[in-house]
Amino acid sequence: MTSVSTLPNAEALFEDLGRRLYVDAQIDIPPDVRRALREAAARETNRGARGMLTTMLRAVDVADRKQTLVCQDTGIPIFWITIGRGIAVDGAAMLEALRRGVERATEETPLRSSIVSAIRRENRHTSTGDGVPVFHVEFSTAIDYIDIVMMPKGSGSESMSFLKMLLPADGLAGVKKFVLDTAVEAGGRPCPPTIVGVGIGGSSDLCMTLAKKATLRPVGQRHPQSDIAALEVELRDAINSTGIGPMGLGGDTTVLDVHIETAWTHITLNPVAVNMQCWRGERRRARVYADGRVDIGY
Amino acid sequence: MEHRLRAPLSDGDVRRLRVGDAVLLDGTVWGLRDATLIRIFDQGQAPPVDLRGGILLHVAPSVRPSAAAPSGYEPMTVGTTTSTRMERFTRGLLRDYGVRAIIGKGGLLDDSSAAFAEYGGAYLAIVGGAASVETEQVEAIERVYWKDLMPECLWQFRVRAFGPLTVAMDSQGASLYRDVARTARERLAAIYAKMGLRP
Ligand code: SF4
């Protein structure tokens, strides 16, 4: 057994992280997304599309300079938490502290709360509510820290979520067609160029989660398995040759990348899910070590 | 082609625009969204301002009170929302109130395109998600009407070099959205074939 240490000052630490990550994710665009936008602008042959990519890069710069939000949509706050070995943490208290952090960010910054109740559409103006923030909690033996990734997911791209329980007989061909068809159907609505996340396999819930998780991977980082990596490149190039372009107004750049995550599935199932992330690719990460040290990154 | 235009727009200003052109705007732009339009059309209250030659922006900004601002508010974040939800109001805005241009993202549909052709109007697409740039280009919030609808009031913005905007639907009845969707569907067939997929 590894020795386990208890994280000092955990509640204050997580509350502060919840606040910082939710705000910073909306101001500071990850370096891989910036690079991908710059490369796309350099490659783009459509003049109007090039102009739009340049405006996106300018929006990133203005937000840096003025410390303002890049986009007005404060999104639905989602946390992806992975707890490694050797750290004892009161999990329920950690989630509550992160939620309080989001509420404080909303009040103190201030941010527009985008969260309403499902039936009566009431807004508490806290960016939180029943089931929100969305928390995904996992455990890993591969790390010795707690990894927290915050994603304020905007509605334009989140609306472009698709799930299909294909048949085994539809094969990989069915999966490819589904991804291409959804990209064409989405058109300009998710603020392309998007990061397209694809989930293949699992149960319906796991498949959708994989698709969304895939959008978290830094742009340009390929799946470690070579056949899946090849499929990512094939789908990326195929979607980019549709000509949908930035904001759906035509051009070579419809996606910055396609990321795929897979899980094993039932012998009679062949599920595929697509979830899109808009061009701002917002996410912010913290690594919390057992001695209370925190590394902030993307 | 590139155009630098000042509101209000004349008939000639609008009819010169062609899909694919780039536009920068100066002067007054009217911000509104779902609730504002519902009041005008479903509740039958005429807007308290003259919208002839006007340019509308699909937006509900985040603002903060400011004693220095002419309206008492200064913008925190002005970021354009998806236009499709407001499709059914385009015709009335052009026909009844003389609006000439609508700025939004995601585009409008066929009836709007027909209305732009019939009355001489255009849809100007903004780069979605680039609210930081948009906010910088709003010089001031001059006046706010229908404050009870906050934040979906009728906002009078003064803008400078607002854009760049892309003419996505023009007074000739052309629509970039329609063209791009058609091209994508055509190309999809070729992509399927290349990847060895049966349609
Ligand atoms: S789709 Fe994304 S970038 Fe576009 S407006 Fe929504 S949150 Fe912002």
Count of discrete domains of chain A: 2
Widest sheet: strand ordering of chain B: 2-3-6-7-9
Biggest β-sheet: strands ordered side by side in the sheet of chain A: 4-2-5-10-11
The CATH architecture classification of chain B is Alpha-Beta Barrel
- Radius of gyration of chain B, rounded? 18 Å
Topology order of chain A in helix (H) and strand (E) letters? EHHHEEHEEHEHEHHEEEE
Largest interface: A-B, 45 and 45 residues
What percent of the residues of chain A sit in helical stretches (DSSP H or I)? Answer: 25-40%
Summarize the structure.
The complex is a heterodimer of chains A (298) and B (199). With 298 residues, chain A is an alpha/beta fold.
Please provide a written account of the structure.
- The complex is a heterodimer of chains A (298) and B (199).
- With 298 residues, chain A is α/β, with parallel strands linked by helices.
- Chain A has 2 domains: 5-27 and 70-154 and 283-297; 156-277, no CATH class.
- Helices cover 39% and strands 22% of the residues of chain A.
- Chain B has a single domain, classed as Fe-S hydro-lyase, tartrate dehydratase beta-type, catalytic domain (fumarase, Alpha-Beta Barrel), CATH 3.20.130.
- In chain B, helix 3 (90-97) runs parallel beside helix 4 (110-119).
- The mean pLDDT of chain B is 97.
- The interface between A and B is large, with 45 and 45 residues.
- The complex binds iron/sulfur cluster.
- Iron/sulfur cluster binds next to helix 5 of chain A.
Q: What attributes characterize this protein structure?
A:
heterodimer; A: alpha/beta; 2 domains; five-stranded mixed β-sheet; four-stranded mixed β-sheet; globular; B: 199 residues; alpha/beta; fumarase; two-stranded antiparallel sheet; 6 helices; binds iron/sulfur cluster
